[in-house]
Amino acid sequence: MVDEQKQELQDEEIGTEQQEAATPAGDDPAARIAELEEQLAAAQDQALRAVADAQNSRRRAEQEIAKAHKFALERFSMDLLAVVDSLERGLELSSNEDPAIQPMREGMELTLKLFTDTLARHQVVAVNPEGEPFNPELHQAMAMEASDKVEPNTVLKVFQKGYTLNERLLRPAMVVVSKAGSGQTGGTIDEQA
């Protein structure tokens, strides 16, 4: 029993020494609490920043995927526009009066309608600005022509239609733009435009 009491006393002394070593003399428990609270606040701030960064990364990835889906058809659509242009030119140059080519012309019209409907279903929309004000974001001016009949900077003629895909420009419309007339009614094309 005496040995047990001696052992308990030694254990108490060792415990007291360890506590004194853990808390240096003169260290205030309130200061230690304040230091630990600062460390906790810093750790919480880091955790919040990490969560916000992860959410931002996920949102950016989702936006990039949505954009890739939305504009995946861009190159394919550009290739199809040449076919549409060819069909339109063929219809412009063929005579509606000639009975020999009437069936071919009707077939070209139906094919063109099928193409344009298919493109429209995939949000490829034609930009045909004849008579509208010139818009440099959608139109490319190929020439200027003096005209007293319309306001300056109005599209007089469309050489080639433009197209947009999901409201983003695929190809600008190539146009002739009016400029202030010089008393002439017909006007001439200014090749230096």
From TrEMBL:
Subcellular location field: Cytoplasm
Annotated segments matching region Disordered: 1-31
Protein origin, superkingdom: Bacteria
Entry annotated with the keyword Chaperone: yes
UniProt keyword list: Chaperone, Coiled coil, Cytoplasm, Stress response
Coiled coil: 33-64
PANTHER family the record matches: GRPE PROTEIN, GRPE PROTEIN HOMOLOG, MITOCHONDRIAL
Subunit structure: Homodimer.
NCBIfam families: PRK14139.1 (NF010737), PRK14140.1 (NF010738), PRK14150.1 (NF010748), PRK14151.1 (NF010749)
Described purpose of this protein according to its UniProt entry: Participates actively in the response to hyperosmotic and heat shock by preventing the aggregation of stress-denatured proteins, in association with DnaK and GrpE. It is the nucleotide exchange factor for DnaK and may function as a thermosensor. Unfolded proteins bind initially to DnaJ; upon interaction with the DnaJ-bound protein, DnaK hydrolyzes its bound ATP, resulting in the formation of a stable complex. GrpE releases ADP from DnaK; ATP binding to DnaK triggers the release of the substrate protein, thus completing the reaction cycle.
Family label: Belongs to the GrpE family.
Protein name, UniProt field: Protein GrpE
Organism annotation: Halopseudomonas formosensis
